[in-house]
Amino acid sequence: MAEHTRGRGRTTVRAVARAVVLPGTWPAALDLGLVDGERWLSRNLATEIEQRRLFPWIPVFFGLGILLFFQAKGTPALWAPAGALALCIAGAVALRGKPFILAVMIALSALFAGFTTGVVRARSVAAPVLAKVTIAPITGFIETVEDREEGKRVLVRVTDIKGLAETERPRLVRLSVRKGDGLSAGQFVAGTARLLSPPEPAWPGGYDFARDAYFKGIGAVGSFTGAVKRLDPSVAAPLSLRVAAGIDEARNALTQRIATAIGGAAGGVGAALVTGKRGLIPEETNDVLRGAGIYHIVSISGLHMVLAAGTFFWLVRALLALAPGAALLWPVKKIAAGVAMIGATIYCVFSGSDVATVRSLVMTLVMFGAVLVDRPALSIRNLSIAAVIVLAREPEALLGPSFQMSFGAVAGMMGLLPLLQWKRAEGRAETLLDQGLRWIFHAVTGLIATTLVASLATAPFAAYHFQTLNPYGLVGNALALPLVSLVVMPAAVLGVLSYPFGLDGPVWRLMGWAVARVIEVSGWVGGIGGSTLVVPALGVGALGLLSLALLIVALSISSFRWLALLPAGIGLALAADPSRFDVYIDREGGGAAIRHAGGQLSLVGRPSAFVVEQWLRADGDARAADDPSLRRDARCDPQGCVVEMRVGHHVAYVQDVAAFEEDCRRASVVITRLKAPPGCNAALVLDREALLARGATAIRFGPKAIEIRSVRRGSEAMAWSERRTGETADPPKENGPRRARPVPEQDLPEDDFSSGEPD
Predict the structure, then answer these.
(1) Residue 64 region, left (φ>0) first, then alpha (ψ -120 to 50), else beta?
(2) Which of 65, 99, 125, 205 has its CA 20 to 30 A from that of 186?
């Protein structure tokens, strides 16, 4: 009977292998028996099932459902994904005796659960978004205050904006204040502000600030135009606001104390490591840390949470170990894990509960929770549980670099963890010196190996989101992280514990010394030629394939890992030969970047420096936004500019109506913030009305068509009003150029973020 059961199990596994990996559409001439492929697939699939490695794929399908939600047109109904989820769950329960169908039902359940989560999340944060530029008196409660090099930045919970009805009034606005002395969280203030809707991406595929603002509840950004008055509130502040304001005031007080005790740039960095307030870090220091590839240390995330919780864990365990009775009778390890969880939670709350910090807290709590139930702290199952919890709480995090890079780095290290483990060969007894040297060797090689693996795992996401790579980041991290791990973060914990007693000064100075050394190391590494490489924006296809390769390596435990070579190879090939846009146009037609015959972008008009920087990075161009060479290859006069492209096309940027007659006749593409005449016969005309409908637009000239990509707002877009569209227009013909199809006019808010980078 047992033999029969085992045989039936092997038959089932073989059937699953055929159904999942070997589709029936394969050519019949493929003889798997020649290479023993069927047995290889069956054996490895059985290993995956035996080691419970199908479970980690649940968050993958959960995330796939979230991605489908963000690709949906308009605002999806809740009943559709929820109903599909219920049907899949019912199917899984009813067909649980059939392994293959059960696996499919679970995967589909996870997918529809992710889609449902996206719908619920979008509806739960729904709030009015400012529709146009508004200059008006505003009143509200200050929720948070951040000191900056020039003035302050405040988050205001709005009670009234003159001229706006309650249904149109944003719930939260983020404002800059040049002279913000005396402003603090919890105050009720009034003043005149210039308000703008959160900005759309600078180019199709660029970072979506409006989406992030929407999920944070921020419906407008801008600045106070005059004095800010503190008033007695007309209504009582909600309890949630009073709690948030109290925490923010405590954070600001500690930030100033640390920055003053340390001084200089090291003081700003040290304060940011403890409280999460980065406004006091000089921009030059930010650039130094970025150049060395260690800027991640100033953003409180996984590294800081693990080090802080680890410090609590180590201190409690070491103190309890000093008492023989406690060490023998008490579960010291579990007590230390519980204290570490409490300490990590307090650290998260006090550091501002930023998105990345909360995400790291969830991962940390799952890891230490495993210790409480006598399970391995570091396992792919725990990482999977943490991913599901994080995505269920904030599904929009899946699209951001923080989630992708943090989980990618951890998954990569877990996938290659067996390669980093080795045992000492049995032999002669080691002396104390031998043990010390062996510990140092393992520590150094482990640090280098984990840093290398994490760098490789996160490189595709860095190239996609930031268009930069730091080839010497391995050196920077290897030199800086020991100081951060052994001195900076333990000192931060001790400083916070001694702060209520007023004995924290010496601890902050010790921490400041270590931070200063980190900055010095960063400056040295960043000074090496080629420390920062600007690369063209990675395409979605290349990113998806490289991510799939990482998932296969991290989640598989059998020889299935070799299958990762296929998507990795194709993804690298696509990344090595990116498809770049030839023209970038800002959302209002105020300027454009056009690829001239020499192959580089040439600037016309007057786009903001921030937008130009985004265009250049997307193109892999390391030039600064004010580089004179950007204007060299455009032929300009007071009526406009013309750029000759390598493919033989001419792109005209019209600034005066007098230029339309000639440019519409000779140019392939006409760009203007004016209204083009109806008889303009260029192949593609992007005038004021078209850009109001499209938003920021990019163009790629192909051999047979002109490809157009736009950021579109309208009634069919998501609530944060961003949508990418792909269209084509016929190229110009010698005997009859034609105009592109008209685009229905849509209501695009007029906004201007030329003052600086919205963050």
Answers:
(1) alpha
(2) 125
Mean pLDDT across 364-389: 83
Closest CA to 344 of 382, 300, 387, 380: 300
Rounded to whole angstroms, the Cα distance separating 690 from 399 reads 28
In the three-class reduction of DSSP (H, G, I as helix; E, B as strand; rest coil), residue 672 is classed as strand
Sheet bearing 724-729, strands edge to edge: 601-605, 591-595, 583-585, 697-701, 706-711, 724-729
The pLDDT confidence band at residue 377, using thresholds 50, 70 and 90, is low
Evaluated on CA atoms 377, 378, 383, 386, the torsion sign reads: positive
Beta bridge partners of 142: 156
pLDDT mean over 21-37: 41
Distance of CA 375 to the CA centre of its chain: 31
Please, what's the b/e burial string for 608-633 (b: 16 or more CB within 10 A of its CB; e: otherwise)? bebbbbbbbbbbbbebebeeeebeeb
Give the strand pairing for 468-469 and 152-161. unpaired
DSSP 486: I
Element (H, E) at 707: strand 706-711
- Output the 3-class SS for 20-81: HHCCCCCCCCCCHHHHCHHHHHHHHHHHHHHCCCCCCHHHHHHHHHHHHHHHCCCCCCCHHH
- Which of 240-244, 256-260, 418-422 comes out lowest in average pLDDT? 418-422
- The predicted pLDDT at position 218 comes to 92
H/E element, 253: helix 239-262
pLDDT tens for 461-487 read 988 988 888 888 888 888 888 888 888
Helices (H), 577-718: 609-618, 660-666, 688-694
Distances (CA, A) of 543 to 113, 380, 405, 722: 24, 22, 12, 21
Q: What are φ and ψ of residue 238, in 5° steps?
A: -60, 155
Residue 89: per-residue pLDDT: 94
Q: Read off the amino acid at residue 156.
A: V
User: What confidence category does residue 7 fall into, taking pLDDT thresholds of 50, 70 and 90?
Assistant: very low
Helix (H, G, I), strand (E, B) or coil at 140: strand
Burial of 423 (C-beta count, 10 Å sphere; 0-12/13-18/19+): exposed
> Rounded to the nearest 10 degrees, what angle do helices 239-262 and 505-526 cross at?
80
Asked whether residue 752 carries a pLDDT value surpassing 50, the answer given is no
Burial of 488 (0-12, 13-18, 19+ CB in 10 A): buried
Is 50 exceeded by the pLDDT of residue 647?
A: yes
pLDDT at 156: 93
Tokens representing 123 are 């509806």
Residue 589 zone, left/alpha/beta (φ > 0; ψ -120 to 50; rest): left
Give the per-residue pLDDT at 430: 66
Question: Looking at residue 490, what is its pLDDT?
Answer: 86
Indicate whether 304 pLDDT > 80. no
Output the six-digit token pair for 270: 């040290």
pLDDT value at residue 159: 92
Cα dist from 252 to 146, 152, 256, 277, whole Å: 8, 12, 6, 8
Distance CA 686, CA 51 (A): 57
Instruction: Specify the pLDDT at position 36.
Output: 58
Residue tagged 């459902």 (tokens): 65
DSSP 485: I
Give the tokens for residue 203.
């180019």
Q: Measured between alpha carbons, how far is 585 from 611 in angstroms, rounded to an integer?
A: 10
Q: Cβ(625)–Cβ(612) under 8 Å?
A: yes
Mean pLDDT score across all residues of the chain: 81
